[in-house]
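Please produce the structure of this protein holding cytidine-5'-monophosphate.
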Amino acid sequence: MDSFIVTIDGPAGSGKSTIAKMIAKKYNFTYLDTGAMYRMIALYVIRHNIDLENKKEIEEMLKNVKLDIQGNTFYLNGEDVSEAIRTPEVSKIVSPVAAIKEVRVKLVDMQREISFGKRIILDGRDMGTTVFPKADVKIFLIASPEIRAKRRLKEYDEKGIAATYEEVLESIKERDYIDSTRKESPLVKAQDAHEIDSSKLNIDDVLKEISAYIDKKI
Ligand code: C5P
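Below is the modeled complex.
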């Protein structure tokens, strides 16, 4: 079977992972949540008190972390951290961690290796720009910060994580800012990506629109 790559980039809470999972199911594609990979590194940074300004510490850390991804289950050095990587604490530190060049080099290599020869959908920030500039279908999914904050708050509520709307909105805006202004692979729309604003659409409409782009190419 030929490989086929679909990328979904966009800011936090735009609905990337929900839609990517639906597409993966519909087309029997592998799904890779690349944000979760950055979150695993961020969790390690918190647990081991890594100094983000210290290059040696970063390099040492990258030698010591082993990431293993089995579908939607994420293992950090053998431990299932699928829940632990979704907390507000990790969300707070993940963008500065993801801005570090050495971190990106390691994870981008892994993302390309995992995708090799597969029919796969990946969501993230730089999938259609840096990681797979020749992807078959590229989507850029956006939504207003307020709508994204409401969605994230609902997720936290369902998991019993305490947070206020204002805190979540501020964290999302801060992440947007760091992600889109960083030097290494900033969050930008690839020239040839299809932009979809999920604030104005329900999830089925987004699914239909993306499916139409895939059906044209597959
Ligand atoms: O997708 P999610 O919101 O879980 O991603 C967490 C963080 O990981 C983002 O805010 C961003 O800083 C970083 N990230 C990235 N590149 C990707 C995916 C995520 O820099 N491809």
